[in-house]
Amino acid sequence: MGGDNMEYSDAYLREYLPRENPPMELVPGDVIDEVERWGDFIGEDRELIARSTFWTYAIFSELGLGRYRSERLHDRFWRVRPWFTLAGTDFNMKRVTFGLFDKDREKAGIGFAIDVPQWDGPEFAIIDRLSFPLLGGVTFPFAIRQNEIEHHVAHPSGATSACWAQCRTTSLWGVLTAGHAVNGNRPGRAVSMASGDTASLGRSYFQPVDAAFVLTPAPSHKPTQLPFMSFASMGLPVIIDCQSGSVSRTVVDVQNNCGVLNTREVGVTLCLDQPVSKGDSGALIRVANGDAVGLYRGSMKAPSAPNGFRGLAQNFEQAILALDVFPYL
Asked: 175 near 210, Cβ under 8 Å?
């Protein structure tokens, strides 16, 4: 599988990311505040990851305000396929991702993408370019990408619990895991645990939010509250706490949310440079200081990479807001 995986490097990000920060007055204040709270855990090149974060959320903000220009390439691109209607003709949509393209399989660079189901058309195609006048006229390509999600859980008891969780309203205890691992949304549903015990489902919102709160006995130790990051971006180094041990990965793109995560309308995701293993669905994704970033879901598969070439994760903050729980370790 190693040959299929996307290859990330700071040098690749540095080559295509604008050399200077965007106008800081156009970066949402919450993003600036979070970056200022970073310690030295982000990685060797803190400035690079900070600049990536500022650009990502300044661009998402400008998208939301409609302050961009489209070259409307998709009108010409799809003229020969009048039966095909692109879901992304309105670029102010929540399913748009922004990040690094796979330079070997797609096209070198940074841009927007919408994932589409597999079909007989191009696996990856740039259909437009968007420019941002207030961000110095910077321009990024807009692509469609054929993808299929493969969840990395064989059966409910094969999932991984991310952390302890306590219901905000009832104070009942449980664990947080991937919603698809539970195979149902009805509260009270029996859930098989890896220990051999049977727990019950507190709540799940899969789909679209791939997270579930499974009721269990309270922890025997006094847990500590788990902090989290709100604004992941391409280049962020993360750690996944898999069943076999912790592994390092890098965020390569994130979904447009601009910090608005208290919604169950659409699941907010992020992608990693490589997937991990089956059975790791629900694993906690965190940065080096322990702040949670996401819940591991599985891999993104494409026709040319049937084993999966990127890892897929559920945004952690959206998960705990949707489930109405406090996270603990």
From this structure: no
